[in-house]
Design a protein that fits this description.
By secondary structure, this protein is mainly α. It contains one helix and no strands.
């Protein structure tokens, strides 16, 4: 008799455990799908940010090249101004 009761209680416990797992299955699947969608969204956002970083790095490099060109042109402009001033000074001396 004890064996029958023990077996019945064991089966009841196993049944409760299985029904608890099955009952939670739908919620777990729903949560899993939500997390998968969120993961996909985050990966997409990460990829977009990587592209934006690459574009910004390229823009920074272009800006640095423009700054170097401006510095070079400014130096050339100053040298030409000096040459004009020197030529004007020579012309002024010749007129006197």
């Amino acid at each position: 008799m004890k064996r029958v009761i023990s077996a019945a209680l064991s089966m009841l416990l196993v049944g409760l455990f299985v029904s608890a797992l099955v009952g939670c299955g739908a919620d777990i699947k729903e949560e899993n799908e939500r997390l998968k969608a969120e993961n996909t969204s985050l990966k997409s956002g990460s990829d977009n940010l990587k592209l934006e970083i690459q574009k910004l790095k390229e823009d920074i490099q272009k800006a640095a090249e423009k700054d170097a060109t401006i510095a070079s042109l400014t130096a050339e402009n100053e040298a030409l101004k000096k040459q004009v001033d020197d030529l004007n000074a020579k012309i002024s001396k010749k007129k006197k």
